[in-house]
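stage 2 :: seqdesign
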C-alpha cells in the first residue's frame, strides 16, 4: 500500500511539473470567463452611473454639493449588487434587504431595537 501511495504521489508530481512547464501550449484551450470580477465605482458620479441611486436615496445632491468623499461603502455596494443580481430587485429594495440582513447579523430587530434580553430602555 505504501508503494502505491508513493507511486501516485511521484506520478502526480511529474505530471504537474510537465503541465506547468508546457502551459504556454495548452493554456489557450482553458475556458476563462470574460470577467473575473466587477469593478465597483469609487466616486458618487460613478455610483450614480452604476445605478446605486434612486428617488429615496438621491446621490445627485452629494454630487451637486461637491462632496469630497470617495462614494458609498465598497463592502456595502458589493452586497447590495449581489442582492440586486440574485433576487432581481431594484436598488431601494436591495438596500432595504441589506439593512435588514445587517440588523439580523448584529442581533437587532426589524424595528431597530436590540434583541438582547439584558437590554433596558428608558423612554
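stage 2 :: out
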Amino acid at each position: 500500500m505504501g508503494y502505491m501511495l508513493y507511486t501516485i504521489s511521484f506520478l502526480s508530481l511529474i505530471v504537474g511539473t510537465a503541465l506547468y512547464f508546457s502551459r504556454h501550449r495548452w493554456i489557450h484551450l482553458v475556458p476563462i470567463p470574460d470577467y473575473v470580477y466587477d469593478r465597483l465605482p469609487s466616486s458618487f458620479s460613478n455610483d450614480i452611473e452604476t445605478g446605486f441611486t434612486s428617488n429615496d436615496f438621491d446621490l445627485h445632491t452629494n454630487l451637486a454639493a461637491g462632496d469630497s468623499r470617495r462614494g458609498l461603502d465598497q463592502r456595502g455596494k458589493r452586497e447590495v449588487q449581489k442582492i440586486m443580481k440574485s433576487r432581481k430587485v431594484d436598488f431601494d429594495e436591495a438596500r432595504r434587504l441589506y439593512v435588514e440582513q445587517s440588523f439580523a447579523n448584529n442581533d437587532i430587530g426589524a424595528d431597530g431595537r436590540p434583541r438582547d434580553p439584558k437590554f433596558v430602555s428608558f423612554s
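stage 3 :: structure notes
- The two ends are 73 Å apart (CA to CA).
- The chain is about 55% helix and 0% strand.
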